[in-house]
Design goal:
By secondary structure, the chain is mostly helical. The chain contains 2 helices and no strands.
Length: about 180
């Protein structure tokens, strides 16, 4: 009878040990699956952030190229206008030199008025170009600030998601 009780106890111990081992194996498999899912989610978030960074960089480069082309076109137009004004002024000077002495004083007064108007026109063009430069710089700075704000929001969202996953895993570890 004592041997039978002893065998029953031993058998029960083995059954409990097997049940415990099976349960631990199931929990470990579940934990490993959660770890893998968390890692995959973190990698996907990281890939999304990297992709967004590349897209923003490409968009910024394209926009800057367009802005530079527009600026260069404005600079060329301003330079052409200045050169045309210089040519007209030089032509007018030659005409005045060829006129009779009696009309030189009147023509010189007209020339001086044209010179002043040309200078004012050149100054207006120069001011317009400078104003456009400032506007482009402000627009660029504003756009970069908005993009950085959006990027930081994405970074914060990714960090929060990673922290939630990490907390879930840590909680699961503590429960085991």
């Amino acid at each position: 009878a004592a041997n039978k009780i002893k065998e029953t106890i031993e058998k029960r111990k083995r059954e409990l040990a097997e049940t415990k081992a099976a349960r631990e194996a199931e929990e470990m498999a579940a934990y490993m699956a959660e770890e893998k899912a968390a890692e995959e989610a973190a990698n996907k978030i990281k890939e999304t952030i990297e992709k967004r960074k590349r897209e923003l960089a490409e968009t910024k480069a394209a926009r800057e190229a367009e802005e530079m082309a527009a600026y260069m076109a404005e600079e060329a137009a301003a330079e052409n206008a200045t050169e045309a004004m210089k040519r007209r002024i030089e032509e007018r000077k030659r005409e005045l030199a060829e006129k009779k002495a009696a009309r030189e004083a009147e023509e010189m007064a007209a020339y001086m008025a044209e010179e002043k108007a040309a200078e004012e026109a050149a100054n207006k063009i120069k001011e317009s170009v400078e104003r456009r430069k400032r506007e482009m710089a402000e627009a660029k700075a504003k756009k970069e600030a908005e993009e950085m704000e959006a990027y930081m929001a994405e970074e914060n969202a990714a960090a929060e998601a990673a922290n939630k996953i990490k907390e879930s895993v840590e909680k699961r570890k503590r429960e085991m």
